[in-house]
Amino acid sequence: MEAESSQPRLWHKENEDEVLRQLNTTKEGLSDKEALLRLTKDGYNELQGKKRKSVGKMILEQLKDKTNIILMIAASISLVLAIVEQMTNGTVDYIESIVIFTIVILNSTIAIVQERKAENALDALKDLSAPHAKVLREGELSIVLTRELVRGDIVYLEAGDIVPADLRLFDTSELAIQEAALTGESVPVIKDAEIEIEENLSIGDRLNMAYMSTIVTGGNGYGIVVETAMRSEVGKIAQSLNTQENVDTPLKIKLAKLGHNLSIVAIFVCSIVIGLDLIRWDWANNPMTFVSFMPTLMTAVALAIGVIPEGLPTIATVIMALGVTRMAKKNALVKKLPAVETLGSATVVCSDKTGTLTQNKMTVVEVAVNGDFKQGKTRIVENKPINDKIYQPLLKAAMLCNNAEFDPDDENNIIGDPTEGALLYFGKVNKIDLDEIDEKYERVFEQPFDSDRKMMSVVVKDKEKLIGYTKGAIEEVLDEVTHFLDEDGIRKITLEDKKQILTLSTQMAKRALRVLGFATKEIKEVPEEGDDVEEGLTFIGLTGMIDPPRTEVLSAIRSCRDAGVRTVMITGDHKLTAVAIAQSLEIFDENRGDLAVGQDELEKMTDEELKLIIKKVTVFSRVSPQEKLRIVKVMNEVGEITAMTGDGVNDAPALKAAHIGIAMGSGTEVAKDAADLILLDDDFKTIEVAIKEGRRIYKNIIKVVQFLLAGNVAEILMIILAQILGWPTPLIAIHILVINLITDSIPALALGVDPAGRNIMKEKPLKTNSLFSDGLVVRVITHGVFTLIASFAAYAYGILVVDSQPVAMTMSFMILSISQLLHSVNQRSNVASAFKPHDFNKWLYWATFGSLVIVLILSLVPGVQGLFNLVYLTPLQYLLVAVFSFVPFIFVEIEKLIHRIYLKKHKIDYSNM
Ligand code: ATP
């Protein structure tokens, strides 16, 4: 390879051979070994996005974290206090400050490790959805990761691809590329590899080049990779842009806001505590000194720590990362994290038919030619041979107007479009020799299939004659037909003929068959690129093929309906075929008032008219990708939360406009790039799984919020109540820290992986607009008060009856922490009893048990106990601790019972709650 020059190369000015020579490659492509060598030298073909946070930066962020700042202030105050004590009376007691500093370090380390782990999990998912390119290596076409492309590689491009690097094109055929990413121009440019360019043209005019990140909208062609990564044209722009997306989800933003608001509450509560102390201060007898004021300050700091749920942001990140990893294992690959939340609130799923709801395994089951139409009867074939000569022209057209191929490695497999594959099988059972056909009839022209025209045509050389063959959606073909192939030869088609053909095809469509019409035409001279050969055709006949629904889909659709999620079929197929399949899948039911809308009706409707009926429409047929976008926009306007599937290049705008764009794993790179979620198995069932998981993740995070905040409420009220009564503080900073960071956080993490409630898909879609919907605030306060009652009662007992502050403090610490552990079990449902059989969450039991052991170690192990200012209790006091620890759990269960009685009385079904 030539040495790199600092001047940018103008590859469009070089001819093809020169480019191959300079890059030391051939049209057969590089060898794998050479490609690897170049990869090692040049690096990955990746645009540099936001760099990963370094550990140093993460530590710095931790140090700037509000919680840690408060903790460090606490530790510093404690340290100063200890120093002053040592200087005044010689006692050495640095334990508290050491413990707090240790906790800061521990807390930060856990947060960094968790964040890294979550990041790694998400990166692993990103790798799963990394774009691929089709590359010739040693003459073989293979699919490689786009980032592994090197200069000199030969890339094959076709519709739906994202150009993987800067390419000098060759052998293009109607290659159309949309270059908006670079030029802002949204109309695709038709490329021409043959063109020779002398001047220094702008990017949009370089017709023999294709540039990284632009989109192939039609045709195909080859290109030599000339620049990769940041040296590409888009790379030059990316240098000044930050391409990495912001992955903060709305929920995480809401949690951050909650943290911020709680810090304000913390400052407020602390001021009250300090204020109360100042008012009560016996100024005359007790002049305020630094040392005498310190305990007040420590109480205020403890309060501040109590108010902020330290573990929450980390736990939420971990829950999400675990959740999306779980989803990926079930074939639902979340590409954009916010989709997780939106999935839980989806109200409608707009799904393609072919391949998603159906198996995409088409079989020709009926055919009809000339006399059949008059008789109004099709010929049932179901993969059985038909020997009548009369069907031969139809068979021939079906073989010639076809781009599918049998897989050389597996004759039962088809490479290409399944509709065309079905025709090939049909030819096979009729003993047609495809090789012979290919040899005999040379294809000289193709007008490729496109979802808008719904037709495709070819022109072949039949001896000296040129013959055109067209196939496509029956109405489209009939529109272009002027003649009819009868038993006696070609004659003009009559209105009666057309009527008979349409009647028969309508009956077939009602039987859920995809009906394709076939026509032919003699052509005078070889057409040129862009010519239209689909007019003045002679009708040959039609085929009807069945594409059975996927087996699992019906139950998934029912489950979605129970969950308040409507399924809408959007298809390019005929209305009657679509309705027949929709009926068998319970998507369409006339008795329910469902409507089916075809393209012609849709075109006539204004958006306002569509808005009036759209909530009733469950089938949109003969829809073009542009109409898909319109449908999704109108759906959004009437307040639906829309999930939309798509796989083609034209689907990208609709996927972006939907709240959740869903691409098929087998779809084009463009669709996958635009989507929020990728279905690795193309199966509708996976959408249901994703909705269920989305709900589960969101609900679990809310459970954690409720659980942690209730604990914090109890802690704050304890301190404030003692302060009001003029009693010594029941909880010191390190107690609160232990509770918040250990005995609360561990069960909280376990709650985060709580299995989905059995009835999660019987509930209505989630309302995710506010964290505090559905009575969360009330529950946080009442549950906090229940815990307060138990632990403060014990504290009062210690102060008033035992008359020992250390005993009182030990009792209230133990009750507070143990009752929180039990309280985590309450949290699994806000209505159902904790004793009702739930799906077993072994993590929760292990977490509760593990945390209990920690509490017991802190309170019982000699040496450790003293570090935390705790003392031994009498057996009676331990018994009281055990009994009181159950009080909040029992209270919450009683509250749920009352709630259930209320719901029953008002005849509200609570079985799903
Ligand atoms: P869905 O939108 O439900 O996934 P689809 O993707 O199969 O259905 P299109 O591919 O847009 O829909 O096809 C629309 C219509 O075009 C079909 O109903 C059929 O009549 C016709 N058609 C499909 N494939 C071909 C093909 N290879 N050649 C000619 N016509 C075709």
Ligand list: adenosine-5'-triphosphate
How many independent structural domains? 5
CATH class of the largest domain: Mainly Alpha
Structural class: alpha+beta
Largest sheet properties: 9 strands, mixed
CATH architecture of the largest domain: Up-down Bundle
Estimate the global geometry from the Cα principal axes.
Answer: elongated
Number of distinct helices: 32
Amount of beta strand: 15-25%
| Mean pLDDT over the residues | 86
Q: Report how far apart the termini are.
A: 67 Å
Poorly predicted runs of 5 or more residues:
1-6, 241-247
Q: Give the number of DSSP strands.
A: 26
Which superfamily, in CATH terms, is the homologous superfamily of the largest domain?
Calcium-transporting ATPase, transmembrane domain
CA-based gyration radius: 36 Å
Helix content: 40-55%
Polypeptide structure, described:
There is one protein chain. Residues 1-6 and 241-247 have low confidence and may be disordered. The two termini are 67 Å apart. The chain has 913 residues and is an alpha+beta fold. Helix content is 49%, strand content 17%. Adenosine-5'-triphosphate (ATP) binds at residues 352-354, 417, 419-420, 449, 451, 454-456, 471-473, 514, 516, 571-574. Residues 352-354, 417, 419-420, 449, 451, 454-456, 471-473, 514, 516, 571-574 line the site of adenosine-5'-triphosphate.
